[in-house]
């Protein structure tokens, strides 16, 4: 059973008009967490259900997560200030399996933040491809540049970087070769396209899935998703069986 930590907020920074970066202090949480796992955060006494938020980076005893305000819970969280404490259950879920070779990291939109910890955890270098809707939604590029050998940015409207999605530069890099694995997080349609390309070029791929969650520990079954194991279709729980899955196991 994961532990509950009462973590002091070190920083709360507005990255875009609706995206916040929060850093908390917890030595224990920092030591236990790996790339791809998430935190289940209590957002006020009036809300029973916690909010699942992926871990973005860990530096010493500082644990960072980045989120977009989408409802009352995340609005409450965005209004917290330095010195206040958060009730955090975690770390939760199965993270990325980090291979020895060079990684190709793909992040899309608000799925980009958890890929930063993956980049920082790469054992032998990484290249990141980050996709956003437009220039106003681009986040964490400078942080990725510190962790990666190369960072490629794409935008749907061409306002920054390559005009289009992450798929074109991904295919170009897969053709060149030299990557042991691809790991990704983002919208389902993007990850499906990433998985299909990886299958085409014979490169192992891990994806992080997002589903609505209730308990975060596998009891409520709200986050069930279809997967395949040994040729048999089954229902898996994103919160405990994932959120990271081998892309070949996912029923898209």
Major sheet? 7 strands, mixed
Characterize the overall form: globular
- C-alpha Rg, in Å? 17 Å
Structure annotation, total helices: 6
* Strand order, largest beta sheet: 10-9-8-7-11-12-15
Q: How many strands in all?
A: 15
CATH class wording of the largest domain: Alpha Beta
Task: Please state roughly what percent of the residues sit in beta strands, choosing from under 5%, 5-15%, 15-25%, 25-35%, 35-45% or over 45%.
Answer: 35-45%
Average pLDDT, rounded to a whole number, is 95
Describe this structure in words.
This protein folds into 3 domains: 3-92, Translation factors (Elongation Factor Tu (Ef-tu), domain 3, Beta Barrel), CATH 2.40.30.10; 96-208, Rossmann fold; 210-252, Dihydroorotate dehydrogenase B (pyrk subunit), domain 3 (Ribbon). 21% of the residues lie in helices and 37% in strands. It contains 6 helices and 15 strands. Helix 5 (167-176) runs parallel beside helix 6. The radius of gyration is 17 Å and the shape is globular.
Write the layout of secondary structure elements.
Layout: E1 3-14, E2 19-25, H1 27-32, E3 38-41, E4 51-59, E5 62-68, H2 72-78, E6 85-92, E7 103-108, H3 113-121, E8 126-132, H4 141-147, E9 150-155, E10 162-163, H5 167-176, E11 181-185, H6 188-201, E12 205-208, E13 224-229, E14 232-237, E15 244-246
Parallel strand pairs: 7-8, 7-11, 8-9, 9-10, 11-12
Antiparallel strand pairs: 1-2, 1-6, 2-5, 3-4, 3-6, 4-5, 12-15, 13-14
């Amino acid at each position: 059973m994961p532990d509950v930590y009462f973590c002091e907020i070190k920083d709360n920074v507005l990255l875009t008009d609706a995206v916040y970066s929060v850093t908390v202090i917890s030595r224990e949480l920092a030591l236990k967490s790996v790339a791809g796992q998430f935190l289940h955060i209590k957002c006020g006494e009036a809300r029973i259900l916690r909010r699942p938020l992926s871990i973005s980076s860990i530096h010493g005893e500082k644990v960072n997560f980045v989120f977009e305000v989408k409802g009352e819970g995340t609005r409450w969280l965005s209004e917290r200030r330095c010195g206040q404490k958060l009730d955090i259950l975690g770390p939760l879920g199965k993270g990325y399996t980090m291979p020895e070779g060079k990684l190709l990291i793909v992040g899309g939109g608000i799925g980009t933040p958890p890929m930063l910890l993956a980049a920082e955890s790469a054992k032998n270098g990484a290249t990141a491809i980050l996709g956003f809707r437009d220039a106003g939604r681009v986040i964490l590029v400078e942080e990725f540049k510190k962790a990666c050998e190369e960072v490629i940015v794409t935008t749907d409207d061409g306002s920054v970087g390559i005009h289009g999605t992450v798929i074109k530069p991904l295919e170009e890099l897969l053709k060149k070769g030299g990557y042991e694995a691809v790991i990704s997080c983002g919208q389902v349609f993007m990850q499906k396209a990433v998985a299909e390309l990886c299958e085409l070029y014979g490169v192992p791929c891990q994806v992080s899935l997002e589903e609505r969650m209730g308990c975060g520990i596998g009891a409520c079954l709200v986050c069930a998703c279809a997967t395949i194991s040994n040729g048999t279709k089954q229902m898996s729980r994103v919160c405990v069986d994932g959120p990271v899955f081998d892309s070949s196991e996912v029923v898209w």
